[in-house]
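User: structure tokens for Leucyl aminopeptidase family protein, please.
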Amino acid sequence: MSHDTDLVQADRGQDAISIHLVARDGFENWVKKFSAGQRAALAAQKFTGGGYEVGIVPDGDAWFAVGGVADPAKLSSWCMAKLAESLPAGTYRLAGGEPGPALHGWQLAQYRFDRYRKDDEATGPRVLLTGEARAIEPALAEARAVCLVRDLVNTPAEDMGPAALEAECEALAKTHGAKLSVTKGDALEQGFPMVHAVGRAAARHHAPRLMHLTWGKEGDPVLALVGKGVCFDSGGLDVKNAAGMLLMKKDMGGAAHAIALAGLVMGASLPVRLHLIVPAVENAISANSFRPGDVLRSRKGLTVEIGNTDAEGRLILGDALALASEHGPDLVIDFATLTGAARVALGPDYPALMTRRDETAAALIAAGKAHDDEPWRLPLPEAYVEWLKSEVADTNNAHANAFAGASVAGLFLDKFVGEGIDWAHFDTFAWRPAAKPGRPKGGEAYGLRAAFHMLRQRYGNR
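Assistant: Done. Predicted tokens:
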């Protein structure tokens, strides 16, 4: 996405190329209004009004664009994304209506991760005009938040270690006038012992730490956002195989979501007392790695037997959730690339959602459906808590059978959230394995817009 040009701008009657949308069902009647030459041009491009089809139609000395959508009267976030990917650089206007939700996909279709190489296919910005002036800033903010998640997840671990996540939190605090405290070293070992244990084997320049950003008025409802920041996951001594390790730069995707969501909350001036908590580690292998069978103490005081060192994300989240619970939160939301089981159940596109309260799940799902970012609820079954029993500690961090891995991980986290607190947990993939219009292969935000729009509805603006 261009960082130099706002890809959505106010329509003040400036020159722009028209875009016409049509569905396949109505195409035959719709195309009759064009000249024989224009119909021939569309036929030559094999344009039939199918979803994501793009056509260019000559119009005297000029031209206009056509796009196929499911329903021109009910646009989605992604229905114009293929147009934004395919059309030449320029300024465009939707004929006969406003783009509405399609503003989102229009921008994200122009995202490029070009930190390490020049994109030879980039053609310059495609700007979309809208007469809905109040929609512009929110649309820009949401697209930039998604791009931030993509950028952070796409960046390799050597350049996106715990120190780099700290720098992101510092930049966020500076932008919004928030306060940031960072705990590391001996203080981390004392205050957040599971974060320290997981991260202690990493090289010094990737040393573990915990970031705690606060913003907003004292007395406003406390909103805690927690993100899993495992910047690379080797699996620890229970080491992953090569295929399992290949994408583990994305294991800080939960932290990326939480950071981006915190930025949206502050940018929208939601009337909350915000706590952003990001534990950041590399789960490395060294002589001082934590081991299978070790018993770790936690910030909450619970002892945890290590059944598997590759179930490390829940450990650092346990300490972070305990900290979040200490501030009397009205709501806690955490994001984590936590389990492969969630992906087996739901695939990449649906983040698994677990909540203590039905009404919180319903609000998140409704907001997700309304903004093309739907989560799917999984249970937190009390019957499975016994699978985490340990003979030597208060709990194990992993269960021995292969059942319900996402829910059992959620049940582990539940132990560290204070009693009675409204809590939602997103087990998100943070990665798109294959491209779709507006959504390139690579780092991706899932559940971010669902959470933000739920928060806007719950708390409103100042």
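User: Anything notable?

Assistant: The radius of gyration is 24 Å.
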